[in-house]
Structures are given as structure tokens and as C-alpha cells.
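In the previous chapter we treated chains in isolation. Here, by contrast, the input contains two separate entities that must be folded as one system, with a combined length of 637 residues.
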Amino acid sequence: MSYAVEAENLTKYFRSLIAVDSVSFKVKKGEIFGLVGPNGAGKSTLIRMICTVLRPSAGKALVEGYDIVRQPQEVRKLIGVVQEKLILYAPLTPVENLEFFGKLYGLDSKILKERIKELLEEVKLSAVKDRPVGIFSTGMRQRLNIARALLHYPKLVILDEPTNGLDPQSVRWVRDYIVNLRNRGLTVILTSHDMYEIDELADTVAIMDKGKILEIGKKEDLKTKYGATKIEDVFLELTGRELRDEISGRLRRRGW
Amino acid sequence: MVMKGPLYHLYVIMKKDLTEFYRVRARLVSMILLPILLMLLFGYMFPGNGTITHIPIAIVNQDQSTGAISVINSFIYMAQSGGTFNVITYSSLSQAEQALLEGKVYAVVIFRQGFGQELSTGSATVQVIVDQMNPTLDQIVTAGIQQIFSQLNVQLSTARGFPAYFGTVSVNFQGLIPGAPSSFEFLAPGFIAMSVVMGGLAGLAMAFSRERELGTMDGILMTPVSRFSIVMGKAMAQAVRGIISGIIIVILSILLFGVKIYGNVFLMAIILFLGILAFTGLGIIATSFVSDQESAQMIMLMLEMPMIFISGIFYPVLQLPWWLRDVAYMFPLVYTVTGFRSVMVMNAPLSAVWNDVLVLLIYSIVTFAIAIPLFQRMVTK
């Protein structure tokens, strides 16, 4: 099997609002798959469906061959997710945060202890492993958040805007780490509003808008197709240059 | 990867919630302070010793014998000299009862025909009707009258002031509300149960909505853990907190207000535990429909407040109109309060509170049977 994710006509409705409209795509194993789109394009909804948090209204998707609706428990064991919102408990220490999630993933306590040590060294947080996360900078929290997503040796890592709000040093570290993940053979799905980031990191790029995938392909092929030197130009060509005044999906659903 | 069972995951989630709670000092302090504040508030609102003075009470004398008159005079003297009571003499029982109903007096002390003769033969009984509608005064009045007659009995036994009579006077208290006890003991268990349940509900609103708002709930949902473990782990964390809170309140009640525990502490803990679980299930159902903390807290408040006033904490449920009584019996607080009170005050065994325990158990099972799939639907819809 050469695909980490295979989605076919994946659709999500929130009452009458269609957030993801019959989306089909494939993510090859070991690649960095860049998913880009303006605010409200449906990226987060699509990712939440793949993560098994949201149930699709229609269509199907397989993660490493497991169906996201029929085999959610298997899918969850295989994916690690770094969401835009940090999935960490501020009053707990890094070790306690990682222990909590590690136990939920069913890791044996001895293996878990070793894994926590290894990951904290990797994300450069060993020195503060017993301090509450609440006192950490955004960059430190994001590094810990990445460690949390990798705890259970996932095959697919999904990073939703992982460099949002970080200082340049942290951004650099996160980007290098994403490349490092691919080099280790992991598959990465990366969403970002930073087109330079996508240009630098992604192998394949999918551009979404209004719930649909407008274009998908190898980064260089897309640039050639649209006569562009940067992915940003392809993106703007497809999604337009006008300003968007997007209203939050939740409020729209409530008829605001 | 070793997959462990739902109970293990339940334990992990419970432990995390409790650790997180323990680490945030403001939450920890509020858990300790809330019961202290509530207990102080209610303890002093419904005091255990007489801080209120000159309470009007009525005397009706239906016996004109010398013995009765002597006892009545002594009673009036002792009642008024201590400053606790203002004694008003009524010529007929119906007038005195009317005054009681109108709130002009808070008790009627009746010396029935033949009182003097009974006393001369050994033992005489005084009938006292107490206004239980005002719990603040109820227990002061009861304790005060009881104390006066105890002192009178000491005098009678020495027989110096009453040379012709050698008997003792016993007091038969009767409430306006039949069958209800008339002291702080009636109120204290209700306050304890209420404080524990309120604390549990406040924590519950936080436990789910805060995690959903922060995004950490997604993190838990992305792990291969059953929804049963998530819901039950959080509920158990609330129950443990509730029990700790209950222990604090009980100790405070004993130390500050002299509340006594007559019954089995273990049985009391079981009732409280089931009460919290039943409420937690109900709370999860109610908060499943909202995603932010503030709305969840509002819903909890709407659920709590009416229940507090109709569940027999302040007044016996019997005092409620029939339709409100039926509403009260639809919610678990009334069973928690009744069962807890029966065990704590009346030393009721499990067999006596079995109905309450059973209802709370069924309530917990049913609400969680609804809450778990509802939670699943709400987080994945």
C-alpha cells in the first residue's frame, strides 16, 4: 500500500452549510502534503474528519488502510495531531502531560518513560520537564505539543498551522523538525497560511477553497502549470486576490 | 503498544483531572472555601444556639389547679428572665393556635386539664406546638422550652418550691408539619448534601466545556479511548472531589455548629457518592448542548437553583404543594438529602434508606446511559 491517506468524495455538512464538498485526494507515504486555503476553506473540518473527531456526512477515507468511520480506534493509533490550539494542560508538567496522553494511547509504562525522555530531549525541554506548562513560552509549548503528537510512534503526523504565532527561531526549529519527520519515513499533512512555508516544505500541495479542492499536484508541477515561481502565486491565481471577510463557520451555522 | 481496558483509561482521565485541579490553587481554594462559606452562612442563618431573644410564645392554661398555676408562674418567670422568650397568655387554645398560624407567636405551650393532678401522682405532660415553617426560630424555641422544663424538673425533684407536688414534667413537642424534626439537625444534612452537589456540578461544567473550549478535548478524542472512559473518568473525578468536599463540610459542621452524626459514615458517603453521580449524569446531558464554559455554568445554575429550594433542604418536602412535590421527586437531590439525613440524624440502616439508594443508583445508570451516547454525538457531529 503506497498511500497513507485515501479520501473519496469526503463531505461534511453543518445543517445546510457545506463545509467540505465531495473532496477526493491521496497522500503518499513518506511525503509532506501541504494543504492550503483561505480562512473558512474547510481545511480544519477536513482534518478533523481524518482525525476521526468529526463524522463525515458522506464519502469515505482510509488512513493506512483503515476506515475513519468503521475503524476509528485503529486510525487513532496511527495518527499524531498538532492542532492550532495547543493540546496541553497548563497546570501539569511536560512529563505529566506526556504521561497522560501516553497512557491513553496504551503505552507500557516502562516504554512510555523512555519515550518521554527521548522526546523531551528531542524538543529541547528536558531542563524544564518538571515545571508547569503554564509558565512556558508559546514556542516551548508548541515543541511540547509536537512531542505529544509523536508519543505513540504515529505513521501519519498532521500539523495544523504549527508555526502560527511563533518567533523566527521557533519557526525555524519547527520547520526543520518537519523535514526531519519526513526523513524518518513519516507522512506529514501540513496546513499553513504561510505560503513560503509550504513552498519550502511540501512535496505535494492541495489548494482548497469553499469546501472543494481546486488544485492538487506536485509543488513544481503546479508552479509550471500556472507559470508561477512561487506557490503563493498559484494560490492567489486560484483563490483570487480580493480580501475575504470570512465569518466563523459556527456563527454562520447559527444564522448570524 | 499495549491496549488497556476502559476502566484503566477511566482511571487515567480521573487522575489527570484531579491533578490538574489540585495544581490550580484558585480552584483548590474555591473547593475548600465554598463549603466553608456555605456552612458559615447557613450555620449562622440557622444558628445552633440562641442568638435571637424575646421570641413571642403563647401559654394556654386549661387547668386552674394550684399545682398548674405554680408551674406556669415558674415557667413564665424562667422564660422571660433569661430574655429568650416573651410569654403571652391566651385564654383559649383556638386563639393561641390562630396566633401561631398568623406568626404572632412561634410556639404554644398547653397545660391541659388535669395537669396538676397528673403532676401530684408522678408525671405530667405539657403539649407544645412549634412553628416549623421558620426553621431559624424552630430549633431555638424547641431547645429553649425544653431547657426551661428541664430546670423546672430539677426544682420539682428537690421539692422546695413545690411542697405538694413531687412529679416531673415531660414535654411533648408537636410541629405544624407532622413528623418533621424541629432542630438544626433537620437542616445540616441538607446543607451538606447541597454543598457537595453544588460543588460537583460547578466542577462538571468546567470539566467538559473548558476542555472543549481549550481544544484539549480533541486531544483526548484523538486517542484510542472509548467515550465511556472519557465520560466516566471525568464523572469519577467530580465524585471524588465531592466526597472530599463533603468530608470538609461534615468536619466543619461538627466543629462549628455541634452537628452530631448518629449513623454510619460509610453509608452516608455512599449516598453522597451516588447523589453526585446522578447529578453528574444529568449535568452532562444538560451541558452536551453547549460548547462554551459560560453557557454550561448558566445551565448548571438553572438546574441547581430551583432544585435547592424544593428538595427538602430548607423545608420538608411535605410542605410543598402536591405538584411541586412531584417535580421535586423527579430530581435526585431530594433522594440524596432524604437518605443522607435519615442516616446522619436518625441512624437509619441501609434497609431504611434502600429506596433512596436504589433511586439514586437507577438515576445514575439511566442518566449515564443517555449521557455517553449523547456526548459521543455532540463531539463528533
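Chain A touches chain B at residues 48, 51-55, 73-74, 76-77, 79, 81, 83-89, 91-92, 96, 100-101, 103-108, 132, 148, 152-153 (CB under 8 Å). The two ends of chain A are 45 Å apart (CA to CA). Compare these points with the single-chain example from earlier in the chapter.
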